[in-house]
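From the thread on structure requests for the teaching lab: each student submitted one protein with a one-line request. Submission from student K.M.:

"Model Palmitoyl-protein thioesterase 1 from Schizopora paradoxa, tokens only."
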Amino acid sequence: MRLPRELAFSLLLPLTSLALPTLEADQIPLSSPASALVKNHTNVRPLVLWHGLGDSHSSPGMLKFANLIRDVHPGIFVHSIYIEENLDADQRAGFFGNVNEQLEGVSQQIAGIDELKHGFDAIGFSQGGQFLRAYVERYNSPSVHNLLTFGSQHMGVSDLPLCAPGDVLCQIARRAARFGVYSKYAQTNLIQAQYFRDPDQLSTYLEVNEFLASINNEVANAVNNTYADNLASLEHLVLILFSEDKTVVPKESSWFGSYEPKDEGAVALLPGAERPIIPMRLQPTYIADTFGLRTLDERGAVILEVCEGEHMRISEECWKPLVERFVGAPL
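Reply posted by the TA:
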């Protein structure tokens, strides 16, 4: 299955969804403003989904995926996170807004759903994955048991691919970004700027970024120990990387990898040479365990998985075993 358009920095190449069957109203398996609440008809743990950039809470692809989940776990309660009730506005909110403010609203949204009050599993698609991780670290009430993230930018993105021709929303965001990804405007109004991590401007990033640098506890004098406690409370953190991902740059960000910063005076890379990657277990924040990732990993609770193919091309062979293993445990 291929989910709808997914971008990595409000300027990434959109993906085209597969043609999906029309869903009747009584088939919609989501709790969202666009659909009536579907009560849990079985004693399994509920599920929360957070869509990616260019998508919305009740798009055909999200509805289709939720239906597939219910084929695996009949009767499971599924809630699709939204920033705006209107689908077009919800899509725009994935490009423009303040992530920290959006997260506060989402925490209140989740807390207000009775079916989730005893905890839930969660799946985040691309940027929805790091946003769900931020929810766990900052709020986690109700608590997340298992968190699965597909192609998420846990160490940010470090490049700006071009927009597809005719993608007006992407073009507008890209032009705005040209004024400076680390400007005050970009850091409070452009969603993807708030997880843009330039390895050659790390000092600037650490000084101005208030989202990714925060949830990764990268600023030494601003470490929040609650983040580590909350993340370490997960039963499992399942990190799914797409083998041919050209949208998330570098793709290893899905596994907490990042480009190695260029040392002052270092020799430039040869044309075509790949920039070295700092893997998860060599990240300074992992070694210092600033936000609980090392604790989780040493417990055997960080699961590294690979989906073969491009960004957000999720085959049944990839998602289904993970959903069977980590979603819908008996209550």
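TA comment: Confidence is low (pLDDT under 50) at residues 1-29, 34-39. The two ends are 29 Å apart (CA to CA).
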